[in-house]
């Protein structure tokens, strides 16, 4: 038997803080505990001492000094390292959070502050009815991107509060499981595939109140754009360093919100982090398609991604007279005929919205037939003093290489030069109005990038050669099943650019109720007068006027994906051995080293050639090994190196997805690839 005095020597006092809303009940409670008391036992003792009858199931201990949750209730206090000086707070795991969605609407909902961010985002996406949650993450706005907005925010605090959509009563937000049917491929469609409006059976899922239909509409439909004044107040990156600030605040997916300093009622941004949009389907993805469209739209309006004047007018036309007007009309018009549905599905198969998409039906033909291209093209080589040498050669494209000869007759002999395009950068250089169809190739060589321009004679020739170059850069040949869809996608985009002037629209722009400044970036509003912009947008609109709402959004997304800078997330880094800072562009299949002063790519490294990557957490340095004994190392200056480490692992994780698999994510594999060992 142990005497009471001996037992007392092993006990110690622990001061606990209880986060409750009951007035008149003290929040700090002192308990006598022992080191072998497990966390679950401590909870029980505390609840008995409080004597408040309520549901405590969502409560857990938050260790303030160590910034961690004590979620393993079977662990003892000794095993957790808890001693008498520990400051433990007994608080709810689910708390209210404000999220700014890509469409700039703010929603307020209850989120787990104790789960890893990856799991929390998955739960958020179930609440918002967004499939493929692994493509999204949470972003804290960096200080640099908030400076311009401070003055405006002080003057307009009240209206911002009124705009918040409260979703705290949805089933998932309340801790209930989401309807599994929302993620089933065999279920009845929950969205009209043409208008994008929710089916009546879906309305009740959001909430039981009368505002449920409005909630669906806000998430799945686009609403009239902001004023030019509001656009001017928002942060617009001017340089690559500015663009790097946009990507500095991504939260660590392997840690909880509380561990990263997020407090209740804080505001975060919910954004598509990974630009690989897998298995887009209008029948189930109206919210997802709309939010991708909105993220693309704002990236273009705020000049986060560069585009030509011609491309800007296409984007404006798709926004101005299609998405905005059709969104308004579709709120009152829900019925569509079967033929329209079939047309959209047919258009979808041609659009190939997913970056790696393709029709797999011609596998036997692909195996037996390796096609080649042979044409007269112009070769343009930049020379010093801004002069260019332009000469016509006979080009032959075979496998992943281009060879060129003096003429067609000499094609049986040795080529003038053979260019291996595997791992190169392919940049379109097109002006349809000026009949300019160019392809800029940046081919990796030992000391940087070899720059080559090809000039095509017409749209068809350009589409065939451009598609072949894009595939070759990824290590694929024209035998790949995605070649023809890639050709069609390029032709479709060129067709949108190739508009003819409508005399009525050109002569009477003042009769059209339109604010063109809302649909183009500030750079173009300064360049053109309002009437000029209106006329040019109407001119561009002639080629998109017959599209349905969903098809217009998908075309917008496709055009966004066609931009040279699409999918690049920028970071300021210092490479090992270098004396100056560079910019690192992270894409879904490659890393690009970019000169910060000129914006020119220096070197490209493909993920497909990567053998391994790791992080030295002591000096915060990322080291990567590639094939052929190529290795690089760099420190990240504009963000934590963990963000780049997670980006690389995340893209590799997303490349393992398949339509054949069920939609359950391998969360363990994601954390294995992205978590790191700090």
UniProtKB/TrEMBL annotation:
The record's Gene Ontology biological-process terms are: cell-matrix adhesion; integrin-mediated signaling pathway
SUPFAM superfamilies on file: PH domain-like, Second domain of FERM
Please give the Gene Ontology molecular function terms for this protein: integrin binding
Determine if Nucleotide-binding is one of this entry's keywords: no
For this UniProt record, give its keywords in alphabetical order, as a comma-separated list. Answer: Cell adhesion
Question: Gene3D superfamilies recorded for this chain?
Answer: Phosphatidylinositol 3-kinase Catalytic Subunit, Chain A, domain 1, Pleckstrin-homology domain (PH domain)/Phosphotyrosine-binding domain (PTB)
Family label: Belongs to the kindlin family.
Q: What is this protein called?
A: FERM1 protein
**Protein encoded by which gene:** Fermt1
């Amino acid at each position: 038997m142990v005497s009471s005095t001996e037992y007392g020597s092993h006990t110690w006092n622990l001061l606990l803080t209880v986060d409750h809303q009951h007035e008149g009940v003290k929040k700090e409670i002192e308990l006598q505990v022992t080191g072998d008391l497990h966390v679950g036992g401590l909870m029980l003792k505390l609840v008995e001492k409080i004597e408040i009858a309520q549901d405590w199931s969502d409560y857990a201990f938050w260790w303030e000094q160590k910034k961690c949750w004590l979620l393993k209730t079977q662990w003892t206090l000794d095993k957790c390292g808890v001693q008498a000086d520990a400051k433990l707070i007994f608080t709810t795991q689910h708390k209210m959070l404000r999220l700014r969605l890509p469409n700039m609407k703010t929603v307020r909902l209850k989120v787990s502050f104790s789960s890893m961010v990856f799991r929390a985002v998955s739960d958020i996406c179930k609440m918002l009815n967004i499939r493929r949650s692994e493509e999204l993450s949470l972003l804290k706005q960096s200080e640099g991107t908030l400076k311009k907005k401070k003055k405006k925010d002080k003057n307009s605090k009240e209206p911002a509060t009124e705009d918040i959509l409260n979703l705290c009563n949805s089933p998932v937000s309340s801790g209930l499981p989401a309807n599994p049917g929302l993620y089933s491929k065999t279920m009845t469609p929950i969205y009209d595939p043409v208008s994008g409006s929710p089916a009546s059976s879906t309305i009740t899922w959001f909430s039981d109140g009368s505002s449920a239909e409005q909630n669906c509409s806000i998430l799945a439909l686009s609403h009239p754009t902001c004023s030019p004044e509001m656009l001017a107040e928002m942060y617009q990156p001017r340089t690559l360093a500015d663009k790097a600030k946009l990507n500095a605040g991504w939260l660590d997916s392997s840690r909880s919100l509380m561990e990263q300093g997020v407090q209740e009622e804080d505001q975060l941004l919910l954004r598509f982090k990974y630009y690989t949009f897998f298995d887009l389907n209008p029948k189930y993805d109206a919210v997802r398609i709309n939010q991708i469209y909105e993220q693309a739209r704002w990236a273009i309006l705020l000049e986060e991604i560069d585009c030509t004047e011609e491309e800007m007018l296409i984007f404006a036309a798709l926004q101005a007279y299609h998405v905005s007007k059709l969104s308004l009309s579709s709120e009152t018009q829900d019925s569509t005929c079967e033929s329209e549905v079939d047309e959209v599905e047919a258009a979808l198969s041609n659009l190939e919205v997913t970056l790696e998409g393709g029709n797999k039906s011609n596998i036997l033909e692909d195996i037996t037939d390796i096609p080649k291209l042979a044409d007269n093209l112009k070769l343009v080589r930049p020379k010093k003093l801004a002069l260019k040498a332009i000469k016509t050669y006979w080009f032959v494209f075979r496998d992943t290489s281009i060879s060129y000869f003096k003429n067609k007759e000499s094609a049986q002999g040795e080529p003038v030069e053979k260019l291996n395009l595997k791992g190169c950068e392919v940049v379109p250089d097109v002006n349809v109005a000026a009949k300019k169809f160019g392809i800029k190739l940046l081919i990796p060589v030992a000391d940087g990038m070899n720059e080559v321009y090809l000039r095509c004679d017409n749209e068809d020739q350009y589409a065939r050669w451009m598609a072949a170059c894009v595939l070759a850069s990824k290590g694929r040949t024209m035998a790949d099943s995605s070649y023809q869809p890639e050709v069609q996608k390029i032709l479709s985009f060129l067709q949108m650019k190739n508009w003819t002037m409508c005399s009525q629209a050109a002569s009477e722009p003042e009769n059209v109720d339109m604010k063109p400044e809302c649909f183009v970036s500030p750079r173009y509003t300064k360049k053109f007068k309002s009437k000029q912009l209106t006329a040019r947008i109407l001119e561009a609109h002639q080629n998109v006027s017959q599209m349905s709402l969903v098809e217009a959004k998908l075309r917008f997304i496709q055009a966004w994906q066609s931009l040279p800078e699409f999918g690049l997330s920028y970071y300021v880094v210092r490479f090992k051995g270098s004396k100056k800072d560079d910019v690192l562009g992270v894409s879904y299949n490659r890393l690009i080293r970019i000169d910060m002063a000129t914006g020119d790519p220096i070197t490209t490294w493909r993920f497909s050639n990567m053998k391994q990557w790791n992080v030295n957490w002591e000096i915060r340095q990322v080291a990567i090994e590639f094939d052929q004994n190529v290795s690089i190392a760099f420190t990240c200056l504009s963000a934590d190196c963990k963000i780049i480490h997670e980006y690389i692992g995340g893209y590799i994780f997303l490349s393992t997805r398949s339509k054949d698999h069920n939609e359950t994510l391998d969360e363990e594999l994601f954390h294995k690839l992205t978590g790191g060992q700090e």
